[in-house]
Every structure is written in C-alpha cells, then in structure tokens.
Write a structure and sequence with these properties.
The complex is a heterodimer. By secondary structure, chain A is of the alpha/beta class. Chain A is built from 14 helices and 19 strands. The model of chain A has no long low-confidence stretch (mean pLDDT 97). Chain B is α/β, with parallel strands linked by helices. The chains are: A alpha/beta, B alpha/beta. At the A-B interface, helix 3, helix 5 and strand 13 of A face strand 2, helix 2 and helix 4 of B.
C-alpha cells in the first residue's frame, strides 16, 4: 500500500511507439488488472495491443458490447480489487458519462483514455480535435470533481498513463487521459525507465469505506471478497455505504468531501510547464498537441527578439488556478489557441484580468505554428 | 424458521422497503433459503443489482458484499468483478425493466459469452418504483400509467430470449411456487456458466390496481391459476394453454 517501486514490464530503453501503443504498454507497466473496451477510432489500437499483451501478463481483457458496459465493468473490476482501464473516443466517451458519475460517487479508481476526435456527433473519426475538455469536467450530471490530464507527446502518453493510474488509486477517483487523435496515431521515440513508481490503494480492515477524518479526505478502499460485507451504492450514502437518499446533512457532507478531496489536494495533482514566462508580454496558454505548435512558434519568435512565453497545462482538471493568476498578473495579454470553439479559454478568463484572446480552429487539423505566429504578431 | 434467515441480513436492517402484498420480499426470503440450504458463506458471494424495486432485494438487506449499480448495467458491473475475482459467487438480482428493457443488450451478450454469473429477474411486469409504467414484459392490453388504452405491444418471452442467446441454465417460476424457486436457485448457485431465472412476482400497488386486481391476494391467486409446470403442460392443447404461463426449466434438453 502507498508508494512502491517495481521493475518495468519491458526492459528499460528507447522504443519507437505510436501513442496508442505507448498507452497500452504504460497500462501494463502500471500493473493494470482489467481492461474492457469497444472499438472506436482513433483509440482502437490501444485495445488491440492490450488484447495481445494481456495474455502474456495474465490480466483480464474483454471486448464488450458497448462503452457503457466498458466503464461499468471497469468499476465492478475495480471494486473487486484490480486496477481497471478503458479507452474510447468522442461518441464512446459520451456513452460513458453516467458511469463516470457513478465512479465519482462511489469513489472508484478507474482510468479512461479519450483519444479525442473532431465532433460534434460522429464528426471526423480520423481527425484531431480537443472538443471534449468541458465534457470531461461537466459531462456527467450533478457536477463532478474529477482529474483530467492532457498529454502532448507519445512520451507523455506513456508517462501520464502511469500517472493517471497513480492519481486514480491515490484519490479514489476516475482519471481521464484526454489524448488527441494526433498524438494517439503519432509515432515517435519513447524512453522507458527500468523502474516504475506506483501507488497502491490503501486498505484498512473494518474502516469506513466512504468516510474519513484524514486530512486528504480519501478513505481506504477494501475489495469484494475480503469479508468486509461492502455496501456500495450510487445513491447518497453515509460513511458505511448505507443509503441516505433523503438526508440533507449526509448529502451535503458527502458531496463536500468528494469535491474537497480533489480541490484541497490540487497543488499536488496539478502539473504545468512554463516557457519564457518571466519577462513575457504575451503568453500562450495551451495544452495537448496545440502546445507543440505553440512552443515551436514561441521559440521562433524569441529568436526574433519578441517577448512571448507559453504556459502548458498538463493537468486540465482540476484547473491550474494559482499559476493562471500568477501569469495573468504579470503579462499584458494571454492567447489561447484551441482545437475547439473555445473551452479552456473561459476557464482562463475566470482567473485573470488582462486581455484574453481565443483562437479557435475546428477543422480536423492541427493548428499550424505559422498560424500561431501570425496571431501572436498581431497581439504584440 | 423465519428468524433463522436473520443471520443473512445486515444487523441495521429494520423494515423492508417493499409495499404490502409485493412478491419481492417473498423472493428475498426464497433466495436466502436457497443459500441457507446449500450452506454457502455470504463472504464468498457478491450480489449485484441495478435500479428499481427488485434491486433493493440484496442492497441494504443482505449481509454480504453488495453493489447497487446504475439502471440496466448490473450485468456489466458483475462481469468486471467476476473476471477479476473468479472465486466470487456472483448473483445479479434486478427487475424486468432493469434487465430486459434498459439493460437488454448486456443480458443477451453476457448469455452469449456464457459469463459465469447467476441472474435472477424479478418480473413484476411493470416499472414499480417509478409509479407503474409499461415495460417490455407488460402483458398485451394491460393498463399502466403510460398505456391508458391498454398495452399495444406484446411482451418479451425472457426465457426464450436468453436461451436463444446461449445461456446454460434458463428457468421461469412464480413466487407462488416457492419450493420450485428455491430448488432452481440452488441449482444455479451450483452451476457453472450464465444462468437466468425469471421469477414472476405480483405488484399489486402499481400493476394490480390498474388491472382490476383489487386486493394483493387477487394477484397471487391469478399467478397460481395461470402458472403451470412445463411437465403438466405437455399433452394440453394450445387452446388450453393460451391463457397459461408455462413455468419450469427451459434448458438441459427441455423447452
């Protein structure tokens, strides 16, 4: 229980992998015990690789009838004691929303990879977008405090998949890895270390599984079959799982803890990277693949002597409020390019008082560095 | 004898949630009697339920690992738990609306995959918890809050559906056939593979009162009258059987 170091499941070294393959290998390295999935472009290759590799590592794999069953069977598997994972893309992510809310309410570690494609609807199944950012946070009814990560490279798909499992186990929460088609299908070098650091869920016999006085707000999590006589329900429940669907005090206490266990630990959860922010006049706030184009653009313009910088959000939810306030208080303008019609830009506006300028491109193609440079020149 | 079963209930359970005359409390007792007869330990069992009245048979009541899941998805949750821990004896207990309407796809696919779980479907022929709406098992012509002119559709024959999907063990009984129900549950608890038992159960509060069954006993009498064992049905003409519900086992060579 807690943190431990284990040896990597494949020999440490440099590999040439696609993003989807890197996610599959990272899940195995994180000692995933159960995977369920349904084919959908552009995440299918993760499931294909897992179906082969799981036989070698002895984990349970099922291609199941739909994405609803994917997420629900993962929750069942997680309660039975295994690390569980499913992968999907837009339409499948929509189908999973009710299950994600159930996982939040019953505090179940589960990792969900969404290789985002251009929507709405069926949209462009083989084309890139990052249109599901707000859905990750608000897609399930009732309001969820959740963790969502945004990788920008194949290396980070590997690293953040492992991080996603660790965060899920640590905070007993579903973690959403918001990949994008462009990185899922990208092939590049990945360095895999000889050791992996993993967090194993805390267990404490007889302890209340849905309540704790500990500061971090995360109760220990027993599994089915351990004699704990677990009572799990998605209805409002007290610390022992007893249904209290009419009790305002129990509901208030439960919802507050579900919120606070993420919100109060956000400094520990949130990751970001600053580039040339110190003396910048204009800063690009970006995430995912768009950050690759943005960094290229920012570095090119720095060579030209322009005072531009970049803040890359590695964690989308909980939102990086502190650094956003910091950056917002130092710079004149913030530029937010996104492969959607404007999602995280609204979040940025909540925390800064300087000018915030969105740039939205939703044509199924990555935002080109030239486009970002052109926009930045207008702002300087 | 009744108090012998208290050992299987959570100590904090007081009264049950079920309406007067509901058959689901009878079914709850029959499931526990089957477990008691077999001498199974509740620590080896996992009860999974969906949403609806029947879902509350195990959840809160049974002193075992129980998970009260999403509407229609109990079988999916059970599949994940069973795959990770095959030692668990997994029983899904839910209603007709949960398992056959919203959850119908999971039901047929788990049967096809022959997932090693036992599914008990408490069929009260309507949506009881939400106030008595039509379900996929409501008889043709029956009145519900959403079929004021009578149900225009014919119901599923759940046993035929699940058998066609590949279930190993399929049976139908009524709570008015308690010993057959106990024996059938004992059988599936000892079986390997996907098993399905449909249990007809009266819902006087929501279904009965809209269909001229003025008292709970009237619905029990109706079930006693209509349900006929498969063996007794053999040799009867289709005319004689037109008003009957055939109960019994529908696999292992029979139909």
């Amino acid at each position: 229980m807690g943190w431990k170091k284990v040896t990597s499941t494949i020999p440490g070294g440099d590999y040439y992998l696609s993003g989807d393959e890197a996610v599959a290998e990272a899940a195995i390295a994180a000692r995933v015990g159960y995977f369920a999935g349904y084919p959908i472009t552009p995440s299918t290759e993760i499931m294909e690789r897992i179906s082969i590799r799981f036989r070698e590592v002895g984990a349970a794999f099922t291609q199941i009838e739909d994405e609803i069953a994917s997420v629900c069977s993962c929750i069942g598997a997680s309660w039975a004691g295994a690390k569980a994972m499913t992968v999907t893309s837009g339409p499948g992510f929509s189908l999973m929303q009710e299950g994600i809310g159930y996982a939040v309410m019953t505090e179940v570690p589960v990792v969900i990879v969404n290789a985002q494609r251009a929507g709405p609807g069926t949209g462009q199944s083989t084309r890139v977008a990052s249109g599901d950012i707000m859905q990750a946070k608000w897609g399930s009814h009732g309001g969820n405090e959740i963790i969502a990560l945004s990788p920008w490279s194949v290396q980070e798909l590997y690293d953040q998949t492992i991080n996603a499992f660790n965060l899920a186990e640590r905070y007993r929460v579903p973690v959403l890895l918001m990949a994008e088609e462009a990185t899922a299908h990208l092939r590049e070098r990945v360095h895999i270390g000889g050791e992996v650091e993993l967090f194993e869920r805390e267990k404490k016999a007889g302890a209340a599984p849905f309540g704790t006085e500990e500061n971090n707000g995360v109760p220990p999590m027993p599994a089915f079959g351990e004699g704990e006589k677990l009572l799990v329900t998605g209805a409002t429940h007290n610390e022992y799982g007893i249904r209290k669907a009419d009790d305002p005090l129990v509901q208030e206490k439960l919802v507050a803890r579900l919120h606070n266990k993420i919100s109060n630990n956000r400094e520990e959860i949130i990751q970001y990277e600053n580039y040339y922010v110190e003396d910048a006049v204009v800063v690009v706030v970006c995430y995912g693949f768009t950050a690759r184009s943005s960094l290229f653009a920012v570095e090119r313009m720095r060579q030209e002597g322009e005072k531009v910088g970049m803040l890359r959000l590695k964690t989308l939810w909980p939102f990086a409020d502190r650094v956003m306030r910091d950056v917002g208080s130092k710079v004149k303008k913030i530029f937010v390019p996104e492969m959607n019609m404007g999602q995280i830009v609204g979040e940025v506006m909540k925390y800064v008082s300087c000018d915030v300028i969105p740039y939205n491109q939703m044509n199924g193609e990555i935002i080109h560095p030239d486009t970002i440079m052109e926009q930045l020149r207008r702002l300087l | 004898m009744a108090r012998d079963l208290e050992q299987y209930l959570r100590p904090e359970v007081g009264v049950t949630f079920f309406c007067p005359g509901c058959g689901e409390a009878i079914l709850m007792g029959l499931i526990l009697r089957a477990i008691d007869d077999l001498g199974l330990s509740m620590d080896d069992m996992l009860f999974v339920s969906g949403i609806g009245c029947a879902s509350l048979i195990p959840s809160s009541h049974f002193n075992a690992d129980t998970i009260h899941t999403l509407h229609g998805r109990a079988i999916a949750f059970a599949t994940g738990a069973k795959m990770v821990n095959p030692k668990l004896k997994v029983m899904v207990i839910s209603g007709d609306g949960d398992l056959a309407d919203i959850g119908g796809n999971h039901l047929i696919h788990a049967a096809r995959r022959n997932t090693d779980i036992a599914v008990i479907c408490a069929n009260n022929m309507n949506y009881g918890m939400t106030g008595g709406q039509v379900s996929s098992t409501t008889p043709f012509g029956a009145f519900t809050t959403t079929t004021a002119q009578g149900n225009p559709y014919h119901p599923f024959d759940l046993c035929r559906l699940v058998k066609a999907a590949g279930a190993v063990h399929v049976a139908r009984y009524s709570v008015t056939q308690p010993f057959a129900v106990i024996n059938s549950i004992k059988k599936v608890l000892q079986a390997q593979g996907f098993s399905f038992i449909e249990i007809l159960t009266p819902c006087p509060t929501q279904f009965g009162r809209r269909n001229q069954f003025d008292a709970p006993a009237d619905m029990l009498k109706l079930l006693m009258d209509k349900c006929i064992m498969k063996e007794d049905a053999e040799g009867l003409s289709s005319e004689e059987l037109s008003d009957k519900i055939i109960t019994g086992e529908f696999t292992n060579g029979g139909d």
